[in-house]
Amino acid sequence: MDYQKIASDVYNLAESDEPIAPIVREALQVIEQCVGQYGQDHVSLSFNGGKDCTVLLHLYAAVLARKVSSTHNPISALYIPDPSPFFALEEFVKIATQDYLLDLFTCNLSSDIQLPVESVTPGVSTPSALKGSSDYIGHSLQTRPVGAARGGEGMRRALELYKSRFPDIQAILVGTRRTDPHGTTLSYRNVTDPGWPAFERINPIINWAYSDIWTFLRKLKIPYCTLYDEGYTSLGSTYNTLPNPALLVKDSDSSHTLPSSLTVVANNPNAMCFVESTPPKSSLNDIGPFTIIADNPDQICLADPVSDLRESEPPRSTLGPFQVLISDPNTQCQGEVNDRSANGVRLPPRYRPAYELQDGALERAGRVSGPVISEI
Fold this sequence. Notes:
Blueprint: H1 3-14, H2 21-38, E1 43-46, H3 51-68, E2 75-79, H4 87-99, E3 102-106, H5 153-165, E4 171-173, E5 189-191, E6 200-202, H6 210-219, H7 252-255, E7 257-258, E8 262-266, E9 271-277, E10 290-293, E11 299-305, E12 323-326, E13 333-337, E14 345-346
Parallel strand pairs: 1-2, 1-4, 2-3, 4-6
Antiparallel strand pairs: 5-6, 7-14, 8-13, 9-11, 10-12
Helix pairs in contact: 1-2, 1-3, 2-3, 3-6
């Protein structure tokens, strides 16, 4: 990891004419003031592999490289895992720990009952299929916010553990944003509530919108957890986190079925294709003016004249995993399911990546306690 390049890229963006530049400058100033007051040895960063703290980590690395030391020292950080975390998320935490040289302490609580890390809406129940499993929270009182505190009981106990192990840490950088639960009343800097371990919470990206997070990550080509490319927009535990329904690809019923046979309708109504076994390479030149290439490399479609289709044309739908290659640019082809029988192979629903979510208010729509929207 080239930390001087990180600093150069981030500070250049902050001084640019890009629309995101003002909030990048703002975040950098908040971090600089924190490090100037406490010193790097007394500051830690809360990192759980999510998109927001990934942005914050990159900003913090830039400040340390530009303002503190040209030689990158290990970054103090804590990881408070959710009960039943995603495997891909934990793998990304490991990668980021190596790439950014984190001195990461994982706050694993020794308890038979797994406590929530973040506050959730009272009354939200664990799916019945998971009751009795090791991921089940169980008692309803444990799903309620802890008084005026910002977080769940699991968070409070984890911070107590961290404070006992690292008493010199006085401030923790947190990737909370205004639209997060309990984020509306926060400022750049807030001390923890009475009854909680004594830290100052530093919130450099409190004023960032959902779209700002993705603009920053993608503009600077910052690696992030792969779950976000699978339709997840807010990550928690495996039992309360689903892909965001707002990103579900339309026409999923037809586009997620790999049929046993299919039809290609061209602007020549007397031409169509059937799925056939791949011919020997020597005969590939005999393929007609267009070809369907499917997920399965052992199947292709060969052009074949058939009877006129104009009198009984079936409903048309796009086949998601297929690509149409046309040698004649004046020919338009469209795939149609010709056999919806049990011979078809059902594929899982497809979702667009998280950065394509247009309405940031739906960021938590894939969470059990998030807003509910109708299916697309």
